């Protein structure tokens, strides 16, 4: 049994547990003058690991400086080098962050760096537009488009036109030069001008030809007005409201739209027009209507408007152009002979009223004329011409005007209750 200090063998002899204990001074009972701890080493309950004596610090000598007191929880102080390094590093970091933030706010549009739109790159020049784009077509056709000014007794007239040949022939509308007291002034797209003489004009077809003397003219390319279809894209060129070098875009919105125009008491014009929704206004008259390939397919001539006064009329998306096949033929006649041939069927339309079943009733047929030669008689009602419906007399006149003299067309007509068909060879008017 052990108490932690000594271990006794069974025979009662004391044997050290490890090594002999160090000699201890004799324990003497303390007296009244000895401290209470003077016999502590002899205490049997003493912790052997406790100090052998209580050591009291030596009191400071008089006049000595007090021992500094250190707070164990205080952060140790760094040297001035460390402080300066930290300050410099903080300043550099703050400058870098401030510069980056300023760049984001001033250049990139915000803290998040959001940029609206992509890199625009280099803007393409007009010459770089694809030739078949609207801009490419406009660039190619514009040098051939002109503004036409003519002096009249009532003042002046302004319209548009286009160069039809390299030797200076310009096509425009008859009503642009109607009543001109002299020649006409032609203004090109670069602003230069040239004096022109009026070669001739045809009031009924509304086509006129002007001749100018100018080198390096660029004529238009002609298309085929019979090859276009509803929905095809088109561009209208001209000087609407005296605004030169104007281009508007639209589509072909109808074909063979019968147009009967002219001033009251004056010449009545008939043609089966190309209808378009391209913006056309006063001053566009005589300018070209071109297809998506830049080929002229019509001559802008008439607009529809809700205004009663023609001077107040404006575009409402309904404009009409003379088919280029007809305009080109008439212009060629004027250039060659000074006047245009008019295509006729050799019959007069009864305009006393509409027929209940539609169609154009013939009031008279010229003996020996195209209609009489095909067996058509007065009183017959023509309902179709080459498959195109004829609703009234003006439709028949306008459709006949589309064709050149000598063209063969198929006529469908009613005689009483029977329907018949005939082939008619159209002729030129004897005038």
From TrEMBL:
Residues 334-391 form the PDZ domain. Residues 1-74 are annotated as: Disordered. One of its GO terms (biological process) is proteolysis. The keyword Nuclease does not apply. Keywords: Hydrolase, Membrane, Protease, Transmembrane, Transmembrane helix. Residues 18-28 have a biased composition (Pro residues). Coiled coil: none annotated. The keyword Transmembrane applies. The chain crosses the membrane at residues 83-106. Gene3D superfamilies: 2.30.42.10, Trypsin-like serine proteases (2.40.10.10). It comes from the Bacteria. Belongs to the peptidase S1C family. This is Protease. It comes from Phytohabitans flavus.
């Amino acid at each position: 049994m052990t108490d932690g200090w000594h271990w006794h063998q069974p025979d009662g002899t004391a044997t050290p547990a490890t090594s002999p204990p160090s000699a201890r001074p004799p324990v003497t009972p303390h007296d009244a003058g000895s401290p209470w701890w003077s016999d502590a080493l002899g205490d049997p309950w003493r912790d052997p690991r406790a100090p052998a004596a209580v050591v009291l610090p030596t009191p400071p000598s008089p006049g000595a400086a007090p021992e500094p007191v250190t707070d164990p929880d205080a952060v140790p102080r760094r040297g001035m080098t460390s402080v300066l390094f930290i300050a410099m590093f903080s300043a550099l970091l703050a400058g870098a962050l401030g510069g980056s933030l300023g760049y984001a706010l001033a250049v990139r549009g915000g803290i998040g760096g959001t940029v609206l739109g992509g890199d625009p790159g280099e803007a393409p020049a007009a010459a770089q537009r694809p030739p078949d784009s609207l801009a490419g077509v406009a660039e190619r056709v514009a040098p051939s488009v002109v503004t036409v000014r003519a002096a009249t007794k009532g003042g002046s007239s302004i319209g548009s036109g286009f160069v039809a040949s390299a030797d200076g022939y310009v096509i425009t509308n008859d009503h642009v030069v109607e009543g001109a007291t002299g020649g006409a002034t032609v203004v090109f797209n670069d602003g230069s001008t040239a004096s022109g003489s009026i070669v001739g004009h045809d009031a009924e077809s509304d086509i006129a030809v002007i001749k100018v003397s100018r080198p390096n003219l660029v004529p238009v390319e002609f298309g085929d007005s019979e090859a276009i279809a509803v929905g095809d894209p088109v561009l209208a060129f001209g000087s609407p409201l005296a605004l030169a070098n104007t281009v508007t875009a639209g589509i072909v919105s109808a074909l063979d739209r019968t147009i009967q125009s002219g001033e009251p008491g004056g010449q009545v014009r008939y043609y089966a027009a190309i209808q378009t929704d391209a913006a056309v206004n006063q001053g566009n008259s005589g300018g070209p209507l071109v297809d998506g390939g830049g080929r002229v397919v019509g001559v802008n001539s008439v607009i529809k408007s809700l205004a009663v006064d023609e001077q107040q009329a404006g575009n409402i998306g309904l404009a009409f152009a003379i088919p280029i096949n007809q305009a080109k033929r008439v212009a060629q006649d004027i250039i060659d002979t000074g006047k245009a041939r008019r295509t006729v069927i050799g019959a007069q339309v009864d305009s006393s009223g509409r027929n209940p079943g539609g169609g154009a009733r013939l009031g008279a047929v010229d003996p020996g004329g195209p209609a009489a030669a095909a067996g058509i008689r007065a009183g017959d009602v023509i309902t179709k011409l080459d498959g195109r419906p004829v609703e009234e007399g003006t439709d028949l006149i306008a459709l006949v005007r589309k064709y050149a003299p000598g063209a063969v067309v198929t006529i469908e007509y009613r005689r009483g209750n029977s329907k018949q068909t005939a082939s008619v060879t159209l002729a030129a008017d004897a005038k």
